[in-house]
């Protein structure tokens, strides 16, 4: 232990080294050192312990960059002012900017309407005009995204995607969950809590045919039923947000044998609100994402389970992969698949840790 300590004292440590020793992200180390942003109490204690042990003195962390070029990255995502699911992406981008503040990186965010193909195409053309080195995007519209990715690649723009995957050999990196496995997990949860009965797989929103993430989850759900001896079955429905209440109630009236509801996106709370409003208590509900409204219904058990997709972490990793590719020529896996977190009212608090704020 004595010799290990002496070795640490002599070594010149980088932010990355300290992060690995403390078991935290580079962004967390940066926030502790510069006393900005938020970190958990445990992370603060772990980083502080390592800093004291190595007698860390801040220095120019960018000294090992391969060149002095200023890199521009564009983030092309749905407008988080219109859909709360994407709001955490704003924090993810902010974290990356803070972490790499000492590097010559420019990050520009372009927001498009998630239900409007023309909006997506307009913002994609703006990206082309900016001529960035790389772009991180959400391929919300499969056909159009495929075309846009090819256009980016033809302009030597490195393209990464996150949240939902599409097949295109020009894609540098994908960050997100295995959505087929996600659908299988939802089916297994219903199998465990119901044992038998028909489940309605619900898509709420526009662009049903172009929503790749929905089709992957539905495929996984059906694959579980087909490959096991389960006594559950499924039917698929799509609802618009505008007419959800009337269409949903009509469906339940005409299908009294429905035992469970699987909402394939973050709008699970919309169904939960209808169940409570109309005093419907005999249906099990599973959906996605830790939106505030979803959390409320999870706590009161109107929603039984939420599958956490963690968009903030996805965008953080996607940008970090691009930055480290350009700055350090770091090898990046083609598919960076994240854990599929299953959350209920009992383990919810594990995802809402107390934080230390420097603001």
Q: What does this entry show, briefly?
A:
This protein has 359 residues and is α/β, with parallel strands linked by helices. It has helices at 2-10, 15-22, 26-34, 41-54, 87-99, 117-130, 142-154, 179-194, 212-227, 244-254, 268-277, 292-299, 311-328; strands at 38-40, 71-78, 105-112, 134-137, 158-162, 171-176, 196-204, 231-239, 258-263, 284-288, 305-308, 335-337, 341-343, 355-357. The two termini are 38 Å apart.
* Main sheet overview: 6 strands, parallel
- Low-pLDDT ranges: 1-9, 60-64, 354-359
Distance between the termini: 38 Å
Q: Residue share in helices?
A: 40-55%
Biggest β-sheet: strands ordered side by side in the sheet: 3-2-4-5-6-12
- Specify the overall morphology: globular
Q: What is the CATH topology classification name of the largest domain?
A: Rossmann fold
Rg calculated over all Cα atoms = 23 Å
CATH architect. name of the largest domain: 3-Layer(aba) Sandwich
| Count of individual beta strands | 14
In total, how many domains does the architecture comprise? 3
Per CATH, the superfamily of the largest domain is Response regulator
Number of helices: 13
Q: What string gives the helices and strands in order?
A: HHHEHEHEHEHEEHEHEHEHEHEHEEE
Mean pLDDT equals 89
Tell me the name of the CATH class of the largest domain.
Alpha Beta
What structural class is derived from the secondary structure elements? alpha/beta
State the main characteristics.
single chain; 359 residues; alpha/beta; 434 Repressor (Amino-terminal Domain); Rossmann fold; 3 domains; 6-stranded parallel beta sheet; 6-stranded mixed beta sheet; disordered N terminus; disordered C terminus
């Amino acid at each position: 232990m004595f010799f290990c300590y002496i070795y640490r004292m002599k070594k010149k440590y980088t932010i990355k080294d300290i992060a690995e020793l403390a078991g935290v992200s580079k962004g967390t180390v940066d926030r502790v050192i510069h006393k900005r942003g938020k970190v958990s109490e445990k992370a603060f204690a772990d980083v502080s312990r390592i800093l004291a042990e190595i007698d860390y003195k801040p220095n120019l962390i960018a000294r090992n960059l391969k060149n002095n070029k200023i890199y521009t990255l564009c983030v092309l995502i749905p407008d988080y002012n219109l859909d709360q699911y994407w709001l955490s992406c704003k924090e993810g981008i902010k974290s990356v900017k803070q972490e790499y503040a000492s590097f010559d990186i420019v990050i520009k965010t372009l927001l498009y309407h998630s239900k409007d193909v023309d909006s997506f195409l307009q913002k994609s053309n703006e990206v082309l005009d900016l001529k960035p080195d790389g772009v991180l995007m959400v391929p919300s519209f499969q056909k159009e995204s495929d075309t846009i990715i090819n256009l980016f690649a033809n302009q030597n723009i490195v393209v990464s995607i996150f949240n939902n995957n599409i097949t295109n050999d020009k894609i540098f990196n994908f960050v997100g969950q295995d959505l087929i496995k996600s659908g299988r997990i939802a089916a297994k949860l219903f199998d465990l809590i119901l044992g038998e009965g028909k489940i309605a797989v619900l898509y709420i929103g526009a662009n049903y045919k172009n929503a790749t993430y929905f089709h992957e989850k539905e495929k996984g759900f059906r694959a579980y039923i087909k490959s096991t001896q389960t006594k559950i079955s499924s039917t698929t429905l799509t609802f618009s947000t505008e007419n959800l209440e009337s269409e949903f109630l009509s469906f339940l009236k005409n299908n009294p044998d429905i035992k469970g509801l699987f909402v394939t996106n973050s709008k699970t709370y919309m169904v939960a609100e209808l169940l409570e409003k109309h005093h419907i208590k005999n249906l099990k509900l599973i959906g996605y994402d830790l939106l505030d409204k979803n959390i409320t219904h999870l706590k009161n058990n109107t929603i039984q389970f939420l599958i956490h997709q963690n968009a903030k972490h996805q965008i953080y990793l996607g940008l970090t992969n691009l930055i480290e590719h350009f700055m350090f020529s770091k090898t990046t896996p083609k598919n960076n698949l994240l854990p599929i977190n299953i959350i209920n009212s009992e383990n919810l608090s594990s995802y809402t840790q107390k934080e230390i704020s420097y603001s």
